[in-house]
Design brief:
alpha+beta, binds adenosine-5'-diphosphate, 193 residues, two-stranded antiparallel ribbon, 6 helices
Length: 193
């Protein structure tokens, strides 16, 4: 893409690039899924700055959404400690799954990231990471199954929006292994959190 190309060649190369990205995501999801199933996933424990961490994620989506009709907001509870210890790359993976879904299923309106402190004990904090959108929402009968593997909600979702139905299953398993909890609230036509 950084060499001289005719407009037609540019289009071809862009298509190859997009397809490769989709394929890579699929392979990585399948590998993660198998790794978790085999009980071979090991978490890293690293001290990291929560504000910096969430800002980096926010900024990358902000850039992508700037040219769209969706506003992205970020809100961080002051009571959250500056540094926490945990696996920030797995946390990033979970938030990327939630944010890419929010982006995929929201045409216009708002996507919000909210971090709040749930509880704080001597050496343990519980933080709620909330990703909300004003998108298409999820029907009540599908709400219970979206964290199951290969489950994509309505049957035409895969054709219309792509995806594999693995993102939320992996996220739910990762959250569970971190002793956390993941859940969804949604109203069709109004949005999801
Ligand atoms: P994928 O996005 O690859 O289809 P996921 O496991 O990430 O798989 O999501 C499963 C299904 O849950 C999606 O196919 C979609 O039907 C529904 N879903 C997830 N997030 C949202 C959202 N923010 N708004 C509407 N539907 C959603």
């Amino acid at each position: 893409l950084e060499t001289p190309l005719t407009p037609q060649q540019r289009k071809f190369v862009e298509t190859i690039g997009n397809s490769s990205d989709t394929l890579l995501t699929l392979i990585n999801d399948l590998l993660d899924f198998s790794k978790i199933k085999a009980g071979k996933l090991v978490f890293e424990n690293i001290d990291f700055n929560v504000k910096e961490f969430i800002w980096n994620i926010f900024e990358s989506y902000k850039l992508q959404l700037d040219s769209s009709r969706v506003e992205l907001t970020l809100d961080i509870d002051d009571k959250i400690p500056a540094y926490i210890n945990g696996d920030y790359s797995r946390l990033t993976q979970i938030l990327n799954n939630l944010l890419s879904n929010a982006q995929k299923f929201t045409d216009q309106g708002k996507i919000g990231i909210d971090l709040s402190l749930v509880s704080k004990k001597k050496d343990r904090v519980r933080i709620k990471f909330e990703v909300s959108d004003s998108g298409i929402g999820i029907s009540p009968q599908k709400l219970d199954t979206i964290f199951e593997p290969f489950n994509q909600g309505e049957k035409d979702i895969s054709r219309r929006y792509g995806g594999t139905g693995l993102g939320l299953a992996i996220s739910a398993q990762l959250v569970g292994l971190m002793n956390g909890r993941i859940w969804v609230e949604s109203k069709p036509g109004e949005g999801s959190t």
